[in-house]
């Protein structure tokens, strides 16, 4: 340990997204290669001597206690824990976090020393992993509200790779088996003999960690919600969700030193007749077991929606991934989003 293959893979994975703001301390981490990265992990992050770094990923993360603050993190998976390396500015970005993060290094604030804080979730404390729709994100749940984190990978490949690596590492954990009866076979556990339909996609790992995947009902619920936003005039049977993707809406900030643009996280949903942007709650649903009351906001809140037939043109940027798309719609006077969307222009 570490093998040449692992060194090469971790070096390749250490690519921070260019479109998101990253602090100086995290830029330093992103510049490390090969053995320097492994030495940095053992010298600054690892909690025990014999743990091995198995996977590295850059991702936006959300914490259950601060659902409105999306922050960039370097996620490190070892044989003992999952580490979320965050920049120090996150601690001061929200006053509600003062109790969540313990400020022990306030004497470093005014120096030229750039500080990162590291949130640790031990694998032994891990209870479940919820994978989001179309593998765009996943939520890791521990034993309390402080131990719930969502990784917004916005990329099915990164999600799939991390879940695979996590399952492999969990297989190494020696956990005492629970005193439950012998596990039933797959079909009697998950299938209903009356309908033959899967009730839920829940995989219980040998380490007793649950991996929960979205079932067909979740897409049905989403289609129903979209139909409701379309004034309920669309036949639900004919409504197909063609695309669900976590994206950013670009808002240009004029008047600043350099006409910068801020990125607002949005869920983009495309149907055969409309394009929708939703504000989605990625961290509160499904409700954790200890939640006493439902979240303050709905899972999906409509931010914008336009008819495809009003789309005039689509402009594509020339930069590499992530690709920027600009949708230009016809400026229809007095167009109300919630109006009768089945109304024909050439009708009476």
Question: Can you tell me about this structure?
Answer:
One of its GO terms (molecular function) is kinesin binding. This protein has 348 residues and is an alpha+beta fold. The longest helix has 15 residues, at 156-170. The chain is globular. 19% of the residues lie in helices and 31% in strands. Helix 1 crosses helix 3 (34-45). A hairpin with a 5-residue loop joins strand 8 (201-204) and strand 9 (210-213). The protein has 2 domains: 4-102 and 111-174 and 195-212, PH-domain like, CATH 2.30.29; 216-329, PH-domain like (Roll), CATH 2.30.29.
Any descriptors?
PH-domain like, kinesin binding, 9-stranded mixed β-sheet, 4-stranded antiparallel β-sheet, PH_NISCH_C, 7 helices, PH_PLEKHM2, PH_domain-containing_M2, 348 residues
Mean pLDDT: 81
CATH architecture of the largest domain: Roll
Total of domains:
2
CATH topology of the largest domain: the name is PH-domain like
Uncertain segments are 191-199
Portion in beta strands: 25-35%
Give the SSE string. Answer: HHHEEEHEEEEHHEEHEEEEEE
Number of helices: 7
Biggest β-sheet description: 9 strands, mixed
GO biological process, one term: lysosome localization
Protein name: NISCH protein
GO molecular function, one term: kinesin binding
Pfam families: PH_NISCH_C, PH_PLEKHM2
